Amino acid sequence: MVVRQSRGWSHSLVSWLILLLCLITTTYASLGDRLPEFRDCVSICIEQNCGRGNAVIPVYLRLLFWTCPSNCDHTCQHIITDQRVARDPPMLDPVVQYHGKWPFLRILGVQEPCSVLFSLLNLLAHRRGMSQIKELIPAKYPLRKYYVFFGYVGMASWVFSMIFHTRDFNATEKLDYFAAGASVLYGLYYTPIRIFRLDQRKPPAKATLLRLWTLICASMYVAHISYLTLWRWDYTYNMAVNVAVGVVQNILWSWFSVKRYQKLKKPWAAWPGMIVAWIVLAMSLELLDFAPVRGLLDAHSLWHLGTVGPTIWWYNFLVRDAQQDIAGERLKA
User: What's phi and psi for 100, nearest 5 deg?
Assistant: First the structure.
């Protein structure tokens, strides 16, 4: 009965994430930067203020690579937004996106302050989890190195997320997407290593499978980056790949969670399935895509906030699972 329920949950998970993909990939077009009043505002601002180059803007903005024209663009976004919000009779959707983004309030030159803050919280969650792994799991435990590297990849992905949300450039966007892709793919890489214990030396076929799996995952990542870099920068393709990879590992962990709980009858053995459910609910925030509250808090930043708790919880599971595994090996000895 439990196994049938887990299969139903897996099918529901796939359907939900496919729906999420379809809706998210429709959100990249923006209306605001096509508004005539916005274009006029930017043109007038540049003409009147940018004759002396970037010297007219504060130093702290220049340190984050704001230029006079980009500062005019940002300023006009808020001027036009304020005008649309104040219009009488009120408009149906007064706040619109510009260049694919909502008009966020800028704090010390940071474009999306809440996303930067919540990315930092995720970074700290990975750092805390790595400390747990290093302190509570013996160095000789074969899976420890995979968990530690998981922490490094996770920290790197959130560093690039912070950089991207601080200043949105073509280069920072690519680095953020490439790092996020590496994090998702590494999650798929170490999942079967743990579930099917490909790290074990016996039988010898496992070592061969591990080398083959490593080669496959490395090739997948190189091919993915090469396609986006050398062939076409495709948002829909990138999202589809990340969702597909995420679905596979979430199904594996949900199945493993059911099997592990049936065997051990311990609540922590069911944590992976619960964490997967939390992640799916957090991802659903992206479906809302509402204008930022107070110009700061939007659905995307809440998605980043929603991943902090599962990250902390996940490292706790890895520690519990490793300790249980080590205890079982000692009993066999």
Answer: 80, 10
